[in-house]
UniProtKB/TrEMBL annotation:
InterPro entries: Homeodomain-like_sf, Myb_dom, Myb_TF_plants, SANT/Myb. Residues 9-61, 62-112 form the Myb-like domain. This is Transcription factor MYB39. It comes from Trapa natans. GO terms for molecular function: transcription cis-regulatory region binding. One of its GO terms (biological process) is response to other organism. Keywords: DNA-binding, Nucleus, Repeat, Transcription, Transcription regulation. PANTHER family: F14D16.11-RELATED. Can form complexes with MYC2, MYC3 or MYC4. Residues 9-61, 62-116 form the HTH myb-type domain.
Amino acid sequence: MGRPPSPAKDGVKKGPWDAEEDKKLVDFIAKHGPGCWISLPKLAGLNRCGKSCRLRWINYLRPDLKRGNFTAEEEQKILRLHEILGNKWSAIAMQLPGRTDNEIKNYWNTHLKKRLIRMGYDPMTHEPRTDLMACLTILAMSTNGLNDLLNRTPLDVNAVKLDYLKQMFQSTDAAAPNLVSSISAPLLEGSPILNSLPQLENQEAAFSLGATTTSGHLLQPLHHSITTALSASPTDLQLDPQPTFPPSFESMLFEGTEAAQSCGFFQWDDPAENISDPWGFESASEFVPSFTTQTDTPASNPVDVTSCSRIHCGDGTSGRYSPWTEILFDHPIIQ
DNA sequence: AAGCGTCCCAACCGCAGGTTG
DNA sequence: GCAACCTGCGGTTGGGACGCT
């Protein structure tokens, strides 16, 4: 695994380390300690550059490294810290003893980032992706439920998709454009955009941002309601210690709107009546978990940031703890 | 069993910032 | 002040492992 041995430059070996090289490096550092990486290879009898030695030691040979899978606690810690720090892997690694920045970076890119995207979150901002939401709603509309919902032919459905895309690309504010008013658009046959749509169909992804149920009702994830409620509040908020969360993804996906409604989703019986609130933020607000006013929680101790619902950083910025993320990450459909 | 595509992660690369002479 | 050197960081690469057809 890893890099293949590439042609040595200046006689310096590259690529995977073998056991003998590891032993030489470990023995030398055990005697002299880490540091002075430029001169270390020569002194340790290694045909490697200092940079390579340092990397091998820090990421693999250090005795205090914790091997094995990340625990749920570590995952949550990474998520919260990333929300605050961004791609500052070394800073994040400092809060996770035994883990390296490289390891965390890899885990983020291969697991956590993908999960956030699947759930409809922007992996950089950790906020719901309104632009993607709009796009995926189109994809959701391409499911069988759309014809029931709009009572239209498949050809007209394509017209809806195309016009919706046009709105997205033309608008600087991609958030929640009006679906209902756009269904009269002409169909441009052979459009590359239109042709690409079937490849993008993904019920799981569509669900995460607003999908149709089997009976053709549009659903909207709870996290938009939470975000809206938080954004509207002038005070810092804290989660109720025992909020109500969706009990099951499958129930919302496959068991119709009743379960969905009880879990924080809502439905349109007639989409045409909801133009003023096309995404149902207002009607869904009653499903938002209760919040209480929070006394300020300064991140004076960075180690404890995972216990805060809102983190205040030294530069005046702050990050918000999203209950949606934590609850849903444990669910099989997100895994 | 073979072929193919995707995932995972160790290791590399380039760059920025700090240190030294 | 400047150049050279050193260290550390974040992004990227690419081959083995794995799963699917």
